[in-house]
Amino acid sequence: MKAEMLDRFALSCLQWAHRNRERFRISRDVTDPETDLNWTMKPLGELAQLSGSVRQLTGSGPVQRLARELQELCWQEVRSGKVLLDLFRAEPQATYPLEIYAAFAGAGMRDQEFERFAATVCGTRAWRLTEQEPNRRLGILNAERRSGFTPHGPFGPALRRTWLGGLPEPWTFERAAGYHLTHAVFHVTDWGAAPHRLPADLGDYLRMWLPCWLDACLEAEQWDLCCELLAVGASLPEPPPGELLDPAWLRLSEVQGADGSLRETGSAPTGKGPELAFAYSYHSTLAAAFAATLSAGRQRQGDRPQAQQQQAQPARGRQRQRGRRDGAPDRAPSEWTGERV
Predict the structure, then answer these.
(1) Sign, CA torsion 272/278/279/283
(2) Which of 9, 122, 216, 257 is the most buried (most CB within 10 A)?
């Protein structure tokens, strides 16, 4: 799909998000321990991350303007970092406040008080020794890097402990593995801004097998995961040939709603009200905007020397813990970007 068409696709997704921006606002009781962060901070954090990525991947124009407005809305909602600081103080063992903050820090939105507290927490033995899934560890390392802290460990060994890092048999790919691998790539490449950070063997492996996995997700109508895989393709040092990815973009364009939204899977829920429709389309719609913007940018960079591409400025990343304060699982299709994107 041509870059101009991808631009229009991304714009329609962001326009939907902008029209629904009130639904991303957080309630005043968000710091209450009984508040379910999966339906409050998680959507806001994902909007901050993905709109911020789109913002930094574009120069000027309506896509960049909408992305900037959406990220600024998120910054206002967290009161320039004060809400994140309150959450972090109440729950210093949690990683999501720093992961959300990293999405803002990458765009120059910073709070010194938050960073002073985070520096103390991130320097503890408990922070370094907390047991986490390998993919979660990568997300935290990248959040530290984007927030200006020295990562508490090396990326290389952490990456090799993930599903993707072990170069698994390609036929073992399934939905959960798909979300794990997409986020592994996002964390290592800083949300597609630094493709050269991905090891060559993983880049070659993904270039070979990603089109096959993408076809499988299209057949299963996993639209959200399709978008994340397309974003991964555009995050590789050498993206797969465009003719192998174009059918996916065509199919996503066909299932996209007239209002610009894209549902996560299958058919749109009917008879459930606007709130449920929003809940099951906001992430996939944002992921589609991110993937389209990243893909269009890589197309335009196609003739640039590799050395120039490696100097591109990093985007950002975010994400949230897989569970709540009580360990309850997220309802998101991936961990959180959520993990979701």
Answers:
(1) positive
(2) 9
CA distances from 241 to 179, 186, 230, 295, 300 (A): 22, 20, 12, 12, 14
- Give Cβ neighbours of residue 36 (< 8 Å, ≥ 6 apart): 324
334/183 Cα distance (integer angstroms): 9
Start-to-end C-alpha separation, the chain: 22
Secondary structure percentages of the chain, helix, strand, coil, to 5: 60, 0, 35
Phi and psi dihedrals of 205, rounded to 5?
-60, -45
- Phi, psi of 240, deg, nearest 5: -60, 160
Q: Tokens 């938050």 belong to which residue? A: 114
Please state the rounded mean pLDDT for residues 81-106.
Answer: 95
Residues in the chain: 341
Rounded CA-CA distance 201/267 in Å is 37
Given a contact cutoff of 8 angstroms between Cβ atoms, the answer to whether 250 and 1 are in contact is yes
**What radius of gyration do the chain's Cα atoms show?**
18
Q: Is 177:201 a contact under the CB 8 Å cutoff?
A: no
pLDDT band at 268 (very low <50, low <70, confident <90, very high): low
pLDDT of residue 33: 85
Q: Identify the helix (H) or strand (E) that includes residue 207.
A: helix 200-219
Neighbours of 179 (CB within 10 A): 27
**CA-closest candidate to residue 61, choices 11, 105, 103:** 11
Least confident residue range of 33-47, 149-163, 232-246: 33-47
Average pLDDT, the chain: 88
The conformation of residue 276, written as its DSSP 8-state character, comes to: H
Return the residue matching tokens 């990243």: 294
